[in-house]
Design a protein that fits this description.
The protein has a single domain, classed as endopeptidase fold (from Nostoc punctiforme), CATH 3.90.1720.10. About 35% of the residues lie in helices and about 25% in strands. It contains eight helices and eight strands; from the N terminus they run H-E-H-E-E-E-H-E-H-H-E-H-H-E-H-E. The radius of gyration is 16 Å and the shape is globular.
Length: about 190
């Protein structure tokens, strides 16, 4: 599908999943047993192209849809949507919640309770604050990494300077992707 065709189908509140081909992100995908490792949310469809709000390094920001997709390996993307259409007020609430979180530093420790942000936490909290809907599964690092017998514990020990914070709570792009509160709008590759 061409990006222009997909762009016309997008709505405020749609969740956008991609795969960033950089080492820590590849490990997130592998260890959560999913192809995706990054997620954002559509907050505007009125301009020349949709706008994605995302938590990325170094700070949470807004990104044009085409630029967001260019970062995805092989231009793979999935678009998920809540089952019930959002009212105008709910769309405004999504945009407001997303905008309040812009400019926050990225949390490389993936701590759900830190002052910083990471992509899946950002989307999880925007939807929760705007709509009172919880997307994804909050789980601790122990559960997350022991659910996959092939998880690369050595990588995570190095990432966390020798000590994995086993009880740290987090939420992953994969758990949002598989949320039963969402249905698929598109899952495949895009031509830019």
């Amino acid at each position: 599908m061409h990006i222009d065709s997909l762009s016309k189908e997008l709505r405020v509140g749609d969740i956008v999943f991609i795969h960033i081909d950089i080492l820590p992100f590849r490990k997130i995908a592998k260890d959560t047993q999913s192809w995706t490792n990054h997620v954002g949310i559509i907050i505007d469809v009125a301009g020349d192209e949709p706008i994605v709000a995302e938590s990325t390094f170094p700070r949470s920001t807004t990104t044009p849809f085409s630029k967001f997709l260019k970062r995805s390996k092989d231009h793979r993307v999935a678009i998920k949507r809540l089952h019930d259409p959002l009212s105008t007020a709910q769309q405004a609430a999504i945009k407001e919640a997303a905008n309040k979180k812009l400019g926050r530093w990225y949390d490389t420790g993936f701590n759900l309770h830190s002052r910083k942000q990471f992509c899946s936490r950002y989307v999880h909290e925007v939807v929760s604050e705007a709509l009172n809907i919880e997307l994804g599964t909050i789980e601790n690092m122990r559960t997350l990494l022991t659910n996959n017998p092939k998880a690369d514990l050595l990588f995570w020990r190095i990432w966390y300077f020798g000590r994995i914070p086993w009880e740290r709570e987090t939420v992953t792009p994969a758990s949002i992707l598989h949320s039963p509160k969402l249905h698929s709008v598109f899952d495949g590759t895009i031509t830019l």
